[in-house]
Amino acid sequence: MGTHHKGSRREKQALNAYVALMRAAESVTSRTTGSMTDAGLTLSQFGVLEAIYHLGPLCQRALAEKILKSTGNIVVVVDNLERQGLVVRRRDRKDRRYVIVHLTGKGRGLVGEVFPKVLKSIVREMAAIGGEEQVALYKLCRKLGKKKDISNSKDSDKPVNNLRRAQ
């Protein structure tokens, strides 16, 4: 459907791409979070547990960066996980200013049970596009996510009509 905004071609193109990206992300997220919800976890809580499960104990700031939340929000998420007995906080021995978040046995068991279910639903959802398209999508999303300021970019006005250009 396209935007009803009466702006320039550049504005309409950007708005259409943004809306499509956000709708797709929300739609896929809603279909992949069932296992998390069934386990009594929010998306943020699962993100924290999954990050520690795969990367090992992390400080709260690193967790915030990993799951794209503010440090203030991470404190609340970790508080709730700690209350459920899924994580524990420990002061770093070398630098006591850092609080490191560790999985408990219960947390490791829960994420070990839930992660494969979530992964299965992600694989099922991503099967809507082929392998090469998944690689192209990954690269485009990384490019978009890491971009700081494209206002000075010479290519910022050019449409990307061929996904292979982005590879």
TrEMBL record:
PROSITE patterns on file: HTH_MARR_2
Domain (HTH marR-type) ranges: 14-146
Basic and acidic residues biased stretches: 148-158
An individual GO BP term: response to stress
GO terms, molecular function: DNA-binding transcription factor activity
Organism: hydrothermal vent metagenome
Residue ranges of the region described as Disordered: 148-167
Protein name per the record: HTH marR-type domain-containing protein
